[in-house]
Amino acid sequence: MYLQLKLSAVLVLFGPAPYQNLLSGVLKPMRFCLLSFLFLSFLPLKAQSPFDTVDFAHPDISLIESLVSEKVDSLRLCHGLNALRYDFVLNKAAEDHAFYLMARKELSHYQRFYKKQDVMQRLLYFGAKDLTLAGENLLWQHPARLLKWNKKKKKYIPRFFYTYDSLADSIVAAWVKSPSHYRNLIRPGYTTTAVAVAFDSRKKELTCVQVFANTRLSGKKASAGIR
């Protein structure tokens, strides 16, 4: 119905003569309203904010990734360390491993694919330059389990009503509680990073991978700031 209204408005305003003639009568005073309707209908939807409640039917994955990266930087700054620069090669490696883990339903730094068996190999595979140090933090299925199945309602319902900000907090907090993950978060030698989240919409499971490295920025697409 919504698409039909948009098509009708386009025909009346810009279509053949029979449709244009409609403007000579009762629709002429509505020309401004029709133009406004078309303009507003093509505007993008409002972006999610950190304090919006996460809709796990349609989560904003990019926002989760950005917030996790920002919170890790805040932790490093509190320890007198440098913030980490985003690197698109690290992002490729993080995404590759996040979706690998999601597909295999396991939590491991190891892959079975040749030349991508560990994080260092994956970074070199995707084109990292001057690589001297690399690390990786993983989280699978989120410790609190995002949703639970309600038999009566026959649908998933939130176990906790996360905002994007509190979800990112909980991911970083889980890493802080793990000595090996925490060492990666506050390791002085790292200069670049990327966070990737894979989400299984059917099982409502989340896999988060953050890759760290000491490497120069990789090519023209790399950004000097935090993503």
What does this structure look like?
This protein has 227 residues and is an alpha+beta fold. The chain has 8 helices and 6 strands, in the order H-H-H-H-E-H-H-E-E-E-H-H-E-E. The protein has helices at 2-14, 17-20, 31-41, 61-78, 88-104, 119-125, 164-176, 179-185; strands at residues 85-86, 133-140, 147-150, 155-158, 192-200, 205-214. The strands form 2 sheets. A 4-stranded mixed β-sheet has the order 1-5-6-2, with helices on both faces. A two-stranded antiparallel ribbon has the order 3-4. Helix 4 (61-78) crosses helix 7 (164-176) and helix 5 packs across helix 6. The relative contact order is 0.19.
Question: How would the blueprint of this fold be written?
Answer:
Layout: H1 2-14, H2 17-20, H3 31-41, H4 61-78, E1 85-86, H5 88-104, H6 119-125, E2 133-140, E3 147-150, E4 155-158, H7 164-176, H8 179-185, E5 192-200, E6 205-214
Parallel strand pairs: 1-5
Antiparallel strand pairs: 2-6, 3-4, 5-6
Core attributes:
alpha+beta; two-stranded antiparallel sheet; 4-stranded mixed sheet; 227 residues; single chain
Q: What is the makeup of the main sheet?
A: 4 strands, mixed
Q: What share of residues is helical?
A: 25-40%
Can you count the beta strands? 6
Order of SSEs: HHHHEHHEEEHHEE
Strand order of the largest sheet: 1-5-6-2
Evaluate the radius of gyration: 24 Å
Q: Show unreliable segments.
A: 1-14, 18-45, 219-227
Shape: globular
**Which class of secondary structure composition applies to the elements?**
alpha+beta
The overall pLDDT average reads 79
Number of helices, counting only DSSP H or I runs of 4 residues or more: 8
Distance between the termini: 38 Å
- The fraction of residues assigned to DSSP E strands is 15-25%
